[in-house]
Amino acid sequence: MGFIGDLNKMNKQAKEIRKDQDPSKQMSDALARMRSVNESMEEANKALADGVPGTAEVVAVGPTTGAMNMNPMMQVELLLIPEGGMPRPVSTQLVVPIQHLGRLVVGNTLPILASTSDPNAVAIMWDQPQT
User: Fold this and answer.
1) What is the four-CA torsion angle of 51, 49, 68, 100, rounded to 10 degrees?
2) How far apart are CA 8 and CA 2, in angstroms?
3) Backbone angles phi, psi at 111, to 5 degrees
4) Cβ pair 93, 40 in contact under 8 A
5) DSSP 3-state assignment of 7?
6) Gap between the Cα atoms of 44 and 122, Å rounded
7) DSSP code for 5
8) Residue 92, Cβ neighbours under 10 Å: how many?
9) What is the C-alpha separation between 55 and 73, in angstroms, rounded?
10) Whole-structure pTM over 0.90, yes or no?
11) How do residues 29-50 score in pLDDT, each as one tens digit?
12) What is the spatial distance between Cα 33 and Cα 50, in angstroms, rounded to a whole number?
């Protein structure tokens, strides 16, 4: 009865777990996260297309909101300082290469391209040295 009893116990536990799950809510949450990531990638592409170089000071770093190709996605508050432009605050979601995660610390300055057509569009130039 030990093995059969354990199977019955496991079956009851699985039913309890399923009771609290809502697949449609999980799907809508996942779609919202995907939209957010697509928007931030679109903004980065704008900055790569028409951006001017500059720096960004890390003002705040939020918790990890997911991962893409094993690289964490994070909500970040930055103070953009484009060359020849006025400093401006930007809140964005970034996919941070895992090897550069240590650079994303409050107070650090990162090299960027800031879009001239969209004030919220920024691309972090991870391949360039920290300024």
Assistant:
1) -40
2) 10
3) -75, 140
4) yes
5) helix
6) 5
7) H
8) 20
9) 20
10) no
11) 888 878 877 887 788 787 788 8
12) 26
